[in-house]
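Below is how a single chain appears once it has passed through the pipeline. First comes the sequence as given, then the structure the pipeline wrote out for it. We keep one example in the README because the format questions we get most often are answered faster by looking than by reading.
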Amino acid sequence: MHILIDNKSGAPIYDQICSEIKGQIISGALREHDMLPSIRGLAKDLGISFITTKRAYDELERAGFIYTVQGKGCFVAPKNTELIREENLKKIESHIDEIIRLAAISALSREDILEMVRFATEDAT
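Resulting structure:
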């Protein structure tokens, strides 16, 4: 498993770890019941605090992306399609916010944006 940490990012490191692992689970790079690196091992590999890594794993477990087996480690939870759908909806909403911001700067109308979406979805289907 490969995780990139951006020290220049304003996002906390534990949040970056969560995002990276969530992304790999959603994309299928990490599959159901795959074992994750140990908390200490990942902390050592990334050169960060054990506490930071533990917080990331705790967040992922609370969100339902991973589960812990005492004495064995952390594993990718079975895919919860509703959870994945919700994560994707959040991403889409974020992209829509950015589209609206850029459209306002470019003086595009609602009709212009909808026409762009219609054109893009014609090619996708």
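The longest strand covers residues 66-69.

See the next section for the split statistics.
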